[in-house]
Design a protein that fits this description.
Blueprint (H helix, E strand, L loop, with lengths): L1 H34 L12 E4 L10 E6 L5 E5 L2 E5 L4 E4 L16 E6 L5 E5 L4 E5 L4 E4 L12 E6 L5 E6 L2 E6 L5 E3 L14 E6 L5 E5 L2 E5 L5 E3 L5 H7 L3 E6 L5 E5 L3 E5 L5 E8 L10 E6 L4 E6 L4 E5 L5 E4 L14 E6 L5 E5 L2 E5 L6 E4 L14 E6 L5 E5 L3 E6 L4 E6 L11 E4 L5 E5 L1 E5 L6 E2 L11 E7 L2 E6 L2 E6 L5 E4 L14 E7 L2 E6 L2 E6 L6 E3 L14 E6 L5 E5 L2 E5 L11 E3 L10 E6 L4 E6 L2 E6 L5 E3 L11 E8 L5 E5 L2 E5 L13 E8 L2 E2 L11 E4 L6 E7 L9 E6 L7 E2 L7 E4 L5 E10 L7 E10 L7 H55 L10 H18 L3 E8 L2 H8 L1 H17 L6 E6 L2 E7 L3 H16 L3 E3 L2 E3 L3 E7 L6 H11 L1
Parallel strand pairs: 59-65
Antiparallel strand pairs: 1-28, 2-3, 3-4, 4-5, 6-7, 7-8, 8-9, 10-11, 11-12, 12-13, 14-15, 15-16, 16-17, 18-19, 19-20, 20-21, 22-23, 23-24, 24-25, 26-27, 27-28, 29-56, 30-31, 31-32, 32-33, 34-35, 35-36, 36-37, 38-39, 39-40, 40-41, 42-43, 43-44, 44-45, 46-47, 47-48, 48-49, 50-51, 51-52, 52-53, ...
Amino acid sequence: MQRRARLPRFRAPLSFAVALLCVLLARAASAQVAAHVDPWAVFETAWFDTVGVADGLPHSTTTAIVQDRRGLIWIGTFGGLARYDGYRMQVFGQEPDSYGGAVLPDSYVRALMPLDDGGLLIGTNAGGLVRFDPSTTRFHVYPIGKGGTSNGKIFSIARSREPNAYWVATESGIDRIDIASGEIARVSGKPGDAHDMLARTFVVAESKDGSLWAGADNGLFVRRPGGRFTRVTSADPELDGILHDQVWALREDDRGRMWVGTGQSGAIYLDAQGQAHAVNGLSGKASLAKRRTVRAFYETPQGVLWAATDGAGVVTYDFNSGRLRTLSHDAAMPSSLPGDITRDIYQDTTGNVWVATELGAARYDPNGRKVFSVLPSPLEAHTLSNANVHGVFVDPRGRVWLGLGMGRIDVLDLGTGSMRHLQLGGEQAERDVQAFVVAPDGSIWAGAQGISRIDPDTFSMRSSLIPALDGRLILSMQRDGDSILIGTYDGLFRYDTVTGALTQMRHDDADPKSLVGDQVRHIVRMPDAWWFATISGISIAYDGEQGFVNLRHDLADPTSLPQDYTGSMAFDSKHRLWLGTFGGIAYLDRFNPRGPFRFGLIGAREGLANTKINALLIDREDRIWASMANGVAMVETDNHRVFNLGVRDGLRIPSYIHRSAAEAPGGELMFGGLGGLTVVRPYWQAPQVAPARLAVTHVAINDKPVTLNGVPDGGGRIKLDGDGRNIRVDFALLDYRAPYETRYAYRLDGADDNWNEVAHGIPPSAIYTNLPSGTYTLHLRAVTRGLDARTVESEVRLVVTPRWYESVWTLLAAVLVGVGAFFGLVYLRTLYLRRRAELLQAQVDARTRDLKAANERLAHLAGTDELTGSLNRRRFLEQAERVRQGAASDGIPFSLVLLDIDDFKSVNDTFGHLAGDTVIRETMRVISSMCRADDLAGRFGGEEFILCLPGALGEHAMDITERVRHALGALLIVHGDYRIRITVSAGVAVWRSPESLNSLLGRADEAL
């Protein structure tokens, strides 16, 4: 009795301990989930590449996407079926000239299912069920009605657990087809099925336990093993209402839950016990699906459910974090989903997620996330307010400050996942924000055209903080005690925040200890000194000493600075100094604050795609990450191996801004570019996926396509019989990523001495004609770009059988007959042909010389201005267009300059038109003399002249233009007894991708 009496006394503490333990475990689990939440997730933009009509799709509205046994993607559309290898489309439709002569009974494809033999099951809108046979490249159409499918409208096809069996959802019920026998049987509408189950069935799926699920026009039904179809219900009235809605999508996830997509009520799931559950934000009419039909589900290996909706884009649900996200079309963001009407989602064997939309098939690479972009858009809360990121800064609280164009600043709080947009006022409102610094009072100073003060708590702003600097472009700022060092185009300023004193330091040609150059791009605190990076070299100001020690490029000294245009500097853990210049990455293995400064160089010879280094950062593993004029590279500091990043890594922004970079609190590296912010996760590892195959995707012999089963796999062979001596072999690396960054080559043993490189932008094909009989090995090669760059090779054997007259005995007899005939005719023919050849050659040589001279004269006259001898308007625009096309492909900018002689009419009126001609000739001579080798100069018309400056940004173009203007202003033109002076006006415009040449000319003309 006493023991029983004691039990209640211990029950409360025990219950409390259990409850406390549960709470602690829950908190630990929550903390673990939180620790894995990516703080950048809300800012990261999912980049979609679109395959559309321009790429060969027969219709822009895509409906279904699958991958066949060989790894090729099949895309169903409203206008037919397409087979895609990343470069080429083979289209099957209702037209007689469809690929290989295979004709579909209905071009509206609703459903696709790949078969084990490489074929496909195809569900059409009105033509019933169709099977594609790869051995014949033909379609087999199954009957409709008796012995066939219940209806000609096929909504979906699902795989059965039984081999070679599939479920088919139609307008009139569910069918089962056995591929081996071709038998089709009706499954639904049988005695014992739910009496209220409508025949119209949108989707069917078989779960792991053998249950058959049917999504009908009036709700969800299930047939358990050995039973009949019954309605799925819920005791919760709200969930039961959802289960009575139209059901268009079903998907069993890896946890055994069945996800149900409805017509207007979003999505819910059923657990293993059949209980329905809602997901806040995903379920109900007020969900992110916006009452739009959920057409398809897909679960990625990372535990993210993708739901395709018919009008609200794609909604993703992370099982681990519970985060919901909408991927939709953004008119301001070309990389967004091309359309919001989505009908299917599919993930291929290399990890790409494909989405069928009304504007093409969109592809997203979830594995290419080591690098990602934060992009501009006025339509989203977590996107940039301006396209160009000129400055990147991390404040003491870990917030990221982005200086943008047009006086805009975006502040990213990674802790809260929020972004705040600020707009500077006054003279800074229309200027690029290039520099930030934390002042002694803790406020943030932002430099554009002058300096503004921003309160870090309230974000209130004060413009014109230092009136003496108003109107000056601020390039860099650093704090030195109570003073702020400020780099501008007009030298270096020191501002004392206590006394308000402002001191300016500039370059003086007569003083070797003055600032090396007035354009101070970067300020870095070094041991016992300040280093100032300019476009004219580096100035070092040692503590307590007057003047500067200057470092410049010296042609006679290979260990000097590789280029005077300098920028970012950083030390690694071994105290090696790394320096970004416009001549490559300079480094000092043994840094001594007092020198000597003997630099090594990592440049084009080591593999850098571009030597104009805009910014560099060093990660926690001592790897250098450098933004360049047209990309980003990673360099291993110990062995100087260079890896140029590419689209496979996630790099999408092609051009970057000088010194716009910073390291985020989590170790991510941020680079500002023309088009957005690039973020590098140096330590992120992509999930393991199957390596992509380099596969033969199409073969044509004598221009006749080989059946798809006749296309060999790697190591297979192709046989050319009879007169088949001409062959075309199309091949591709089937990862569908960065197709135009992949370099292809091929080589045929016995025919080629070296690899044949496939030209950039051309679909990879190997073409051979008139092959002699024999056995050959065709080697194929693909080289990818990026951090995981690799070379993939494959080979195919070609067997060319001999013709009857190519047998050994036939050839021997022909040789004997030929020898007799040859010796009988050779002597007479030799004399005649020799004489004839000499006469013909003499005539050809004479006419060739005349024609070449005439063509050279015509070409020169057609492209030359008669008065100045320079390029005329037409020839200049032709060459400038080539520069623009080169810039569009490699990302190197260029500028146009229009110059106009001021008041030229008065020259003609005062001195005569001949004097005016002299003025134009002399002006063109001076302009041409000041151009670089790659620059283009020409007469644009009348008194107008034009320059094209490849590789020149606005600052460089302005510098060249000013030198031309000063030279012309100092020029004294002599014509007879007259002494004439002129001035010119100029307009400068920097090309912006993908701007046309006419648009650029218009902006230069407006600037003029």
